[in-house]
Amino acid sequence: MTIRFWNRSALTALGLSIPGHAFAAAGHPEPWQMGFQDAVSPVAEFVHDFHTALVWIITIITLFVLGLLIAVVVKFNEKANPVPSRTTHHTGLEIAWTIIPVLILVGIAIPSFRLLKYQIELPKADITVKAIGNQWYWSYEYPQDQGGGFKFDSYMLTREDAQKAGQPALLAVDNEVVLPAGKTVVFQVVGADVIHSFSVPSLAFRMDAIPGRMNQTWFKTDREGVYYGQCSRLCGQNHAYMPIAIRVVSQDKYTAWLADAKKKFASNDAGAAVKVASRSAPVE
């Protein structure tokens, strides 16, 4: 079930849209882009709507305070009031400036807690994938009981290889995570060495990958495409070179990919040590 803070069409009808929210292509940032990437999951839509509402609340409060400051400067300057007032307090005003901010904060807190609950309460998973953060690449495991039974490493492509493939530099990888559209996907996130962070902005999830601790996050989207993210923790020398690429495809294409992946990654364990050693330097 999709839960939103505020209906997006209602915001648009009221003219309450934020410049920069007419986003570029979904899945990755564009040069000089301002604002979020396109929201492609229910959680991401909630985040965007909540952010839009917060920006307007902040704008209204800022303009109100600016208006008060201008009124004070104009009305209560020395020329307009040569004899200053000796008023020290006003009960009604003091009650107002205490109650009104409390009501505003309560109004913000309610959808904020709803969003937190929506993000951390895991729905029933259709597919579970384990994401392992390493220095400096990601590994993924697909469980046997869901048609998988294999694992693979995912390294960043060089800039030249990314350009040849028509993919964004510093974000494209050699082995993408492939998942079907319309399914609830739960990621089990863990670190193999230091703390990493598994984050994809367009899907609105970010979860720390901590050694010895299993964290979980989830997403669901009906939109096919490739959605990119990066490690969001300073995890060492090559922190900037461990992107995440999630390709969402139709169920038929996913089934075909699973069959090919079982063959492709069948002997992945045997060559893992060699591969890690060969990728220990930046691949920029």
TrEMBL record:
Catalytic activity: 4 Fe(II)-[cytochrome c] + O2 + 8 H(+)(in) = 4 Fe(III)-[cytochrome c] + 2 H2O + 4 H(+)(out)
Location(s), subcellular: Cell membrane; Membrane
Biological role stated in the UniProt entry: Subunits I and II form the functional core of the enzyme complex. Electrons originating in cytochrome c are transferred via heme a and Cu(A) to the binuclear center formed by heme a3 and Cu(B).
Family: Belongs to the cytochrome c oxidase subunit 2 family.
Any Pfam family the entry gives: COX2
Keyword Lyase set for record: no
Record organism: Alsobacter metallidurans
Signal peptide positions on this chain: 1-24
GO MF entries: copper ion binding; cytochrome-c oxidase activity; oxidoreductase activity
Protein's gene: coxB
CC annotations in GO: plasma membrane
Cofactor details (free text): Binds a copper A center.
Keywords, sorted A to Z: Copper, Electron transport, Membrane, Metal-binding, Respiratory chain, Signal, Translocase, Transmembrane, Transmembrane helix, Transport
Protein name, entry field: Cytochrome c oxidase subunit 2
Gene Ontology biological process: ATP synthesis coupled electron transport
InterPro entries: CcO_II (IPR045187), CcO_II-like_C (IPR002429), CcO_II_C (IPR034210), Copper_CuA (IPR001505), Cupredoxin (IPR008972), Cyt_c_oxidase_su2 (IPR014222), Cyt_c_oxidase_su2_TM_dom (IPR011759), Cyt_c_oxidase_su2_TM_sf (IPR036257)
